[in-house]
Structures are given as structure tokens and as C-alpha cells.
# Entry
Amino acid sequence: MKFLVSLFLVFSLIAPVQASIQIYEFKDPAIEAEYKDLLDELRCLVCQNQNLAGSDADLAQDLRQQTYDMLTQGKTRAEVVDYMVTRYGDFVLYRPPVKSSTMLLWAGPFALLFIVLIVVMLRIKKTRSVEAPQQENLDQAKNLLADDVQQINGLNKKGVTK
Amino acid sequence: MRFILPLGIFAILVILLGLGLTMDPKRVPSPLIGKSAPAFDLPQLHNQSGSFSPDDFKGKVWVLSVWASWCVSCRAEHKVISRLAKMKLVDIVGLNYKDEPADGRRWLQQFGNPYVLSAVDIEGSAGIDWGVYGVPETFIIGKDGLIKHKHIGPVDDKALDEEIIPLLKTLI
# Structure
């Protein structure tokens, strides 16, 4: 019984939080999909590691409303993105456009991968060249082996066996 | 010799991470710098029949200071803005952002009013057009109607003396 009462109290605390979420209704499911997709791609500027869909900040609510208004007024996705970028800069986009100032961001990982590949290849080549036997070493080894065989044969003839 | 490569990579990482620590990710560069001030037409906080539009100040250098009574760091900034107002270099317009007008008026009565007027942006629509995402924010608008500078967060004495006042003097 005590458990049930405390459970009820806990849920009564949660209720006002849920009430603050604004629900938008769409007549066209295509626009709804576009809306949800956009909210995932646009960053909330107040809490910077959240997108508009996941943020409960005041500004995020306003920008969700703005996105909803623009889409239901028949504006395209590109127009909404353009609207946000002219006001808040490329920073609102989780997928920033490729241009000179974002070149390092886009090409950086590939450049790094390229450098690492080259370093690894050079290293492999170096260790291979060390392992590859030289002709004179081979000859030397052959002579030593031949000597050993002769010695063993000689010992066998003397009758020294195990 | 075999330690040089890992040590080098480590040193580069330390330098890059160190650089990252000195940067403030909250300072998002505004795309509005060098663009014309976004238009709005909003009622005034004290003179309810009057309105304010950035066009009213065309040909003047002026400062737009975004504030709200609910904004804690606006209180810290208030004395700095007041100091700028006392210098009488330029007009400072307040943008009372997403605030109850009555609360805004009470706030100014309590702390003093450094603004020639405050525009009331209850919905925050002008704020969105100006790319406001954290209050307080301060904009400097030149004679040509273009935004010259944006300061995000509270203006402190250092920012006022080293950035804002020198810039205002070159613009006037």
C-alpha cells in the first residue's frame, strides 16, 4: 500500500512535465515527416548538444513553432533551412554545407586516414626488407648446414649413435 | 627513437585540445555581421501608443541591447550598460525579450533605465530575426544601417572598454 502511494506521488510529479510538450497536428503526413526530419537536423543554440526535437529550451520551442508554421504554409524544406541559417549561421545545421571554411571538417578525417595508411605501408615495407634474406647470408647458411651434415655423417660412421 | 612518433602525436593532441579549451563554444559567430539590421515594428515599453522600428534610427549609430527581467546575467550587465549610457556616445535601445511588460517596467524602475526606449518583443519574433539565442545580447548598428558587432552574453567592463567603446568611436 505504501509502495502504491509513493508510486502515485512520483507519477503526480511527472505529470506537469509532460503537459509542457506542445503537440502539433498535421493534415499531410508528408509534411509531418519533413517536420520531424528537420527537427532532427537543426541544432538548438541554447543547449548545443541537442537538436530542436530533443530540446525543451524556450528558444527551441519557438523554432519548432516557426518550422511548423513555415511548413504548413507550404514553404519547402530548403526555405526553412535558409531561414534558420541566415539568422543563426551554419552552426544550426548538424550537417554543415561543404565550403572553404568547412573544408577541414569534411576532408580532415579522410586526410588523416590517408596519412595513417601511408605511414602503415611504409612501416610494413621497412619490416619486410629487414626480413628478406640476402644472397650471401643464404650461401653462408647453406655452407653451415652442409658442414653439419658432414659432421653428423662422420659421427654415424664411427658408430656413435644414441 | 621509437618514442618520437607517439610522443609527437601526443604533443599535437595536447596542443589541439589546449586550443579547444581556450575557445568558447557558446560564442556562435553571427551571420548578421555586415548585413542590414532586420526590420521589426514593436510597441514601446513605456509609451504604449508609440512604436519602434530600426528604420527610425537610420543614419545614426546606435546600440540594441536585448534584455529581460527574468534574465539573471542582465542584472550583472546593467551597470556596464548604464556606464555606456552615461557617456552619451550613442543611443541605446532596449529590446525587452519575451518578458511581461509590467515586469520589465518594474525591473527598470528598480535598477534604473539606461535605454532611450525599450521595444517590447513578447513573442520573441524580432529576437528570432536578429538571431538572438541567449539573453543578454548587444548589437552595434552603424550609420549605414548595417550590423557592425554582436556581443553574446553580458557585456563586462573589459568588453565595453576594449571592444565596444573603441568600435563606437570609429563609427561615429
